[in-house]
Design brief:
The protein is of the alpha+beta class. The protein has 15 helices and 23 strands. The two termini are about 45 Å apart.
């Protein structure tokens, strides 16, 4: 990866920015995905620029279909909870500044800048801003940032991004010599030093040019040791952001109110316009969309998150209503939806190839909503730097059952299919079972609770053969897409992101070699080549859809935009009209 100084490097990111009116045409045509440049900002000072027309007051309601799997920052790695956490509750060393106009910057959040690099890219120094406080008024320190990163090493906290852990340890097996601060472990991770309350220094064994991007991940959220409740921290993370938890009734509702000790003068991206946020965990996509279509009462100041897209049953009514159509938030995101094969169980490559040939992507889109994506055939998203189009298993728009049967040798293949138990995924599971039957697949479909889905699939010994998973780049480039999903050296008993459990020596080595490159252009070419190589030799997934968000919001919601880094409704500028 290219070494750089602060303010110099530029990387490509998805152009998912949308203003608050981003309706689409009646046919639901997919917006063409494109890339844009994210630059390291020279100015990380607060306060965030005022939003035109914004005022303080009111309550914003967010409809979701299930509780968060994890709100603990060091375990938070699913979009609805990540958006809520990073936009409202906690801060990180760096963050993304955007407002939906397509301009995207990395800025210092807790830190005064995006990092000071030295020693050929191995050493990165961050200095914390003055006046940073938690919800009780106590100061946020560099020791708290280091402690937050330290606890992310714990085998008890298995979810969340793995970049800092692997980089600091110099190995994907980051627990070989250090297992976090619990059970007598050090409170500061290896290769980290904290010379004073405001300074944290990372001394990586090898260069890492994209540290400023990784520092925007939730891993760098501060956690004061005295507030750490280990696995119970999910229930009450301690606020460093503009809002704090007032009440949290798991599986039902969360209420956030202002953190009076948050200082906007230290924050370059967030506002605290609404008096409170109420997050409801009990709505289906149809219920939420019908409420927003009616636009009455609390729904006027409500919105849906990525997990509650407008369903096909409601969408025609929405686009037929001129007012409601204006309140669609839509645009391509960086996510690719794919059916992951559990390679511990589905060992025959011809079965995996046959599944790819048989997959009816157009039919799947009709169930999913024809406006919610376009058929996918690659690992990398078109929004990702270095993406190259190909289609190795071209079954046409609706799949090729005959080609699949040829590969299966006329045998019928039983598969256990796990799905996240939502209204839309129930329909997808039923469609998949029906559409795959002609090709020779007999699917036993089994639901998994929404708030346990990735936890269950992340167990190495899970009892499922195939399952649908969406993955989006944490920042642009194949390095945040291919290794997290397919590096066999990262497989652990629990908390896996490599849900295919692929462990291919050739691919593992190529991933390591590409990550060590100093030339980003060359890296992009090799990620694209590795994408195709993996799908040729291993076939760990059946790509299904390149994602497009299509959600709604109420008529009194202002300042909403589609966030490029999260592929979800951005909350930093929200206000009640």
């Amino acid at each position: 990866m290219r070494l750089f100084s602060v303010g110099v490097v530029a990387l490509a990111l998805v152009a998912a920015g949308c203003t608050e009116n981003t309706g689409q045409n009646d046919e639901g045509d997919q917006q063409e995905a494109s890339t844009q440049t994210a630059v390291l900002a020279e100015n990380s000072d607060g306060p965030a620029p005022e939003v035109k027309g914004a005022q303080k007051g009111g309550t914003v309601t967010i409809y979701t279909s299930a509780d968060f799997e994890h709100l603990d920052p060091q375990q938070n790695y699913v979009i609805p909870s990540t958006t809520t956490g990073t936009n409202l509750i906690y801060r990180t060393l760096t963050t993304f500044r955007e407002n939906g106009d397509g301009k995207l910057e990395v800025v210092g959040d807790l830190a005064t800048n995006t990092g000071e690099e030295s020693n050929g890219g191995k050493t990165w120094k961050y200095t914390l801003k003055d006046g940073l406080k938690y919800e009780d008024g106590s100061p946020i320190t560099a020791q708290d940032v280091a402690y937050g990163i330290a606890r992310s090493f714990s085998p008890d906290l298995t979810e969340g991004p793995k970049y800092f852990q692997s980089w600091l340890a110099g190995s994907s097996d980051y627990n070989a010599k250090y297992k976090g601060p619990y059970d007598g472990g050090a409170k500061i991770p290896p290769n980290v030093s904290v010379p004073d309350d405001k300074t944290i220094i990372f001394n990586f064994p090898s260069p890492h040019a994209d540290v400023p991007f990784a520092a925007a991940m939730v891993t760098t959220s501060p956690v004061p040791e005295k507030r750490d409740t280990k696995t119970q921290y999910d229930n009450r993370p301690f606020s460093s952001g503009p809002y704090k938890i007032e009440t949290y009734r798991r599986t039902q509702q969360m209420t956030l109110v202002r953190n009076e000790h948050w200082d906007p003068n230290t924050d370059p991206v967030r506002h605290d316009y609404p008096d409170k946020y109420v997050i409801e965990f009990t709505r289906t996509d149809a219920q939420a969309s019908e409420l927003l279509l009616a636009d009455q009462g609390a729904a006027q100041t409500a919105l849906t998150f990525q997990d509650l897209q407008i369903p096909a049953s409601v969408y025609p009514k929405v686009i037929a209503n001129p007012d409601a159509k204006k309140r669609i938030l839509t645009g391509p995101t960086q996510f690719v939806w794919a059916f992951n094969f559990n390679l511990h169980r589905v060992k025959d490559i011809n079965v995996r190839k046959a599944f790819n040939y048989a997959l009816d992507r157009e039919g799947l889109l009709k169930v999913w909503g024809s406006y919610s994506g376009i058929p996918a055939t690659t690992i990398l998203s078109p929004t990702t730097s270095g993406y190259q189009d190909y289609n190795l298993y071209d079954g046409g728009k609706n799949g090729d059952p005959e080609k699949a049967k040829e590969l299966l040798g006329g045998k019928r293949v039983p598969l256990v299919y796990a799905y996240r138990n939502t209204e839309r995924n129930q329909a997808v599971a039923a469609f998949l079972r029906s559409s795959m039957k002609e090709a020779g697949f007999d699917l036993n479909i089994q639901p998994v609770d929404e708030d346990q889905y990735y936890t269950v699939l992340g167990r190495k010994d899970n009892a499922f053969d195939v399952y649908l998973r969406g993955w989006g780049a944490d920042w642009p480039g194949g390095g945040t897409t291919i290794p997290p999903q397919f590096d066999g050296d990262q497989i652990t008993p629990t908390g896996n992101q490599n849900l295919s459990y692929m462990d291919d020596a050739k691919a593992n080595k190529e991933m390591d070699d590409i990550l060590a490159l100093s030339d980003l252009t060359e890296a992009d070419k090799r990620w694209a080549a590795l994408d195709k190589d993996i799908m040729t030799r291993v076939v760990p997934i059946a790509p299904a859809l390149y994602d497009k968000q299509t959600t709604m919001y109420g008529s009194r919601i202002g300042g909403i935009y589609l966030s490029a880094p999260y592929g979800n409704s951005g909350l930093n500028n929200l206000y009640v009209k």
